[in-house]
């Protein structure tokens, strides 16, 4: 029998005492539909990148500032660094550990402790100084894969942290784009309200002139002024929304309000609404960072379960020491001063009253939890995309209807004003059509802004 035979016999004995069938946690792939019900066909589909307002210089400048300075991205980067450090530590645990030490030890003893009398010619020096230096090495060969599983889990958590950072970046870009779209919508609303106010002020002038000439009652002038007051009130209310947008952009970009407003004031021409892109539900599994992160956490939970189950088996540790020990500096490098040792140790659970079994059950529950979180993330992604596609269809229909309403009311207002100038209609009729047309163009601008926002929700839902 070789010298190593007793060691492996002991390992097998300990493993047999502690081992048992590891728990099986089923993680079936969630059912994915073949297509999105609201997605357009390939002939009408656009590109995903076109959903962003990339032609707007304000969006480009604010996006660049946010990516460079946003505190949320800084937090995500710090989490990646922490996960990377944990992965390096797990990888280093599989390598041997080498330690060095040096020592000087002085001791004094009582000669009487060696007996009442000593043989002639023999004396004991009560003062003794020892000089030593050593190198020691220790290594766990990881026979049953515990360290390998822990390293895999740490690496997967690094992947999850990286995906989380991507999700933060994508959400940040979507927030910036939404705020820019809202600002442009405010510009369009302000322009339409200003046109309404100008038209109302013209009617006020006409009503005042006719009232002064005794050709119309003073009530007509009051009605015209009420229409103008409504436009002024809505114009003043836009400043509150602008302040909210600027404040939010200051938070996201880490820049001051003056710089933010200077970017938003950059000229920008109105662009047509882009077509929604065609996408497959299966694309979300590799495109959306939150799904990628959830999948990585599920795989890490599986590796944790394997590492915990490996604790049932014994651990083999190999160690060795090589050093010098002398009682005077001059003897430190003599052959007799060389000391050393080699050791192999094995230790494992024999009777632990269910401690490891409870830890394994806890790791299995963590894996079940991670799987349910992964399923929830997948179905959330599918639901977000379906909702966004349907929201685009509804928002486009609303925008078209609002634009048609605004065009019809504007035409009616213009025709009535022409009839009034020709003496074919009275001022009351002109005021009534003006009142009906007042705010219609603003509602159309709001509807277009909502349609643009719906496209940003789709961009975010499809993974950016």
| Portion of residues within helices | 55-70%
Distance between the termini: 65 Å
CATH topology heading: Outer membrane efflux proteins (OEP)
Biggest pleated sheet: 4 strands, antiparallel
| Helix run count | 11
The proportion of residues in beta strands is 5-15%
Sketch the topology as an H/E string, one letter per element: HHHEEHHHHHEEHHH
Instruction: Compute the number of structural domains.
Output: 1
Low-confidence stretches: 1-18
Going across the biggest sheet, name each strand in turn.
1-2-3-4
CATH architecture: Up-down Bundle
Itemize the secondary structure elements and their pairings:
Blueprint (H helix, E strand, L loop, with lengths): L4 H14 L38 H13 L1 H22 L4 E12 L18 E13 L6 H67 L5 H36 L3 H8 L19 H4 L1 H21 L5 E12 L11 E10 L7 H67 L5 H11 L2 H22 L3
Antiparallel strand pairs: 1-2, 2-3, 3-4
């Amino acid at each position: 029998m070789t010298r190593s035979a007793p060691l492996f016999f002991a390992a097998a004995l300990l493993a047999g005492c502690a081992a048992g069938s590891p728990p099986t946690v089923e993680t079936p792939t969630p059912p994915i539909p073949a297509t999105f019900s609201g997605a357009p066909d390939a002939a009408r589909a656009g590109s995903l990148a076109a959903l962003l307002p990339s032609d707007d210089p304000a969006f480009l400048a604010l996006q660049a500032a946010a990516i460079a300075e946003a505190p949320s991205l800084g937090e995500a980067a710090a989490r990646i660094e922490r996960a990377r450090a944990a992965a390096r530590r797990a990888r280093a645990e599989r390598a041997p550990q080498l330690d060095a030490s040096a020592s000087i030890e002085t001791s004094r003893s009582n000669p009487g402790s060696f007996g009442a009398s000593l043989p002639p010619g023999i004396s004991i020096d009560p003062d003794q100084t020892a000089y030593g230096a050593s190198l020691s090495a220790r290594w766990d060969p990881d026979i049953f894969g515990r360290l390998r599983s822990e390293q895999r889990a740490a690496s997967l958590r690094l992947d999850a942290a990286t995906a989380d950072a991507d999700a933060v970046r994508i959400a940040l870009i979507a927030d910036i784009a939404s705020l820019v779209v809202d600002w442009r919508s405010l510009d369009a609303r302000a322009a339409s309200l200003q046109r309404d106010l100008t038209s109302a002020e013209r009617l006020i002038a006409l009503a005042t002139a006719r009232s002064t000439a005794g050709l119309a009652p003073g009530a007509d002038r009051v009605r015209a002024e009420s229409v103008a007051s409504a436009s002024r009130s809505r114009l003043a209310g836009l400043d509150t929304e602008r302040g909210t947008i600027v404040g939010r952009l200051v938070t996201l970009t880490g820049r001051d309000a003056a710089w933010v407003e200077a970017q938003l004031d950059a000229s920008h021409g109105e662009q047509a609404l882009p077509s929604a892109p065609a996408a497959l539900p299966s694309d979300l599994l590799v495109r959306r960072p939150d799904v990628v992160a959830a999948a990585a956490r599920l795989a890490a939970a599986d590796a944790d379960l394997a590492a915990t189950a490996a604790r049932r088996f014994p651990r083999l540790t190999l160690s060795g020491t090589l050093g010098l020990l002398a009682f005077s500096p001059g003897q430190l490098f003599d052959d007799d001063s060389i000391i050393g040792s080699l050791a192999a140790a094995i230790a494992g659970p024999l009777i632990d009253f269910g401690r490891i079994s409870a830890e394994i059950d806890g790791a299995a529950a963590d894996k079940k939890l991670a799987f349910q979180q992964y399923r929830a993330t997948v179905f959330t992604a599918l639901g977000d995309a379906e909702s966004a596609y349907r929201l685009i269809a509804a928002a486009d229909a609303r925008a078209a209807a609002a634009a048609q309403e605004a065009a019809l009311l504007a035409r009616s207002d213009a025709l009535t004003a022409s009839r009034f100038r020709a003496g074919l209609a009275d001022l009351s009729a002109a005021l009534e059509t003006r009142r009906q047309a007042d705010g219609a163009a603003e509602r159309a601008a709001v509807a277009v802004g909502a349609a643009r926002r719906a496209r940003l929700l789709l961009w975010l839902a499809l993974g950016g």
